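Before drawing any conclusions, I needed to go through one protein's amino acid sequence and its backbone structure tokens, quoted below without any editing.
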Amino acid sequence: MGMHLAVFITDHGFGHAARTCAILESLNPLVPELSVTLVSAVPTWFFDESLTFPFTHICEQVDVGFMQTDAFNEQPRETVQALASGKPYSERYLALTCQKLSTDIDFLITDVTPLAFQVAQRMGKPIVLVENFTWDWIYGHYLNVEPALRSFCDLFAHNYAHVDRHYQTEPICKPIANAIQVQPVSRRPRTPPSITRQRLGLNDDQRIVLVSLGGIGAQIELKAPDHVVLIVPGRSWHKTANVVSLPQPSSFFHPDLVACADAVICKLGYSTIAEAWFTGTPIGYVTRSKFPESPVLEQFVTKHMPCLRIEESDLRYGDLQPAIDQLCQLSRGPVPSANGADTIAHDMRKWFYRIN
């Protein structure tokens, strides 16, 4: 029996989309005639490189998330203004979204947009939640600086409570007693590290550090020790003796870059941490001092992974050479025996066939 899913994904960074794609990739071989409709403002190219099966993409904003000036600075007041504007939570937007979805949808998946709950209720379909945090939990940490977030905390908590299947992926910010808790969810590398290095024009014996910082990476003047090559996605294509800049998108799958690197420098975010955990790659991380998810991620990293904390000031002013030297001295961590994507996919399949 086939399965048709409507999958709602917040575009607050790419981490939620990466996690959802990893689950869908694990689910696809388990379900004959799997049909997936993605509803998200995440660009289509990201799904094209992350999914190996056909899908439909409705490119619409389905979540506000949290407004930011850059990867490290949140804007609580602007977040309230965006939430209060109505889109994407107005009745009109809800009706238009439902019209765009096929009537043969079997169930919905959300990571972590509350709009999906309203759509599921309107369509009379079950809904699955995948998360390591929910927006009501995030907003609750900013009530002292922006009390107007309270009404949205209450509304979204009400939405999240009406879930038919609930998965929480480590590192979990607020464990829920009746949720199914699994290991980190990571997209899998597809190319052997030696092949990725060849495509980059690098030798197997060269030390490689991947600098994965989203948009902020393009704003920093990066220097590396002579014995290290930096791979920096998010810039235009350029190669010097020890810096390789890659456009976004590029022909290189991000998990392949993580797997071929001797270390990763990243902002403390879910998907890069999960991909480094899955491949045992040491990470140098820059924490987001105000974002409430950060202490949870940092606790996981320091407990389970070879890692080094890097100060934001060192990152912004390009003083990374001492950190790079330290990172390159770290040994790879153990490769985990399981990927949370597989655990969720197998359980989701059994749950779906049981309720049908």
Remarks:
- The chain has a mean pLDDT of 93.
- The domain at 193-327 is CATH 3.40.50.2000 (Rossmann fold).
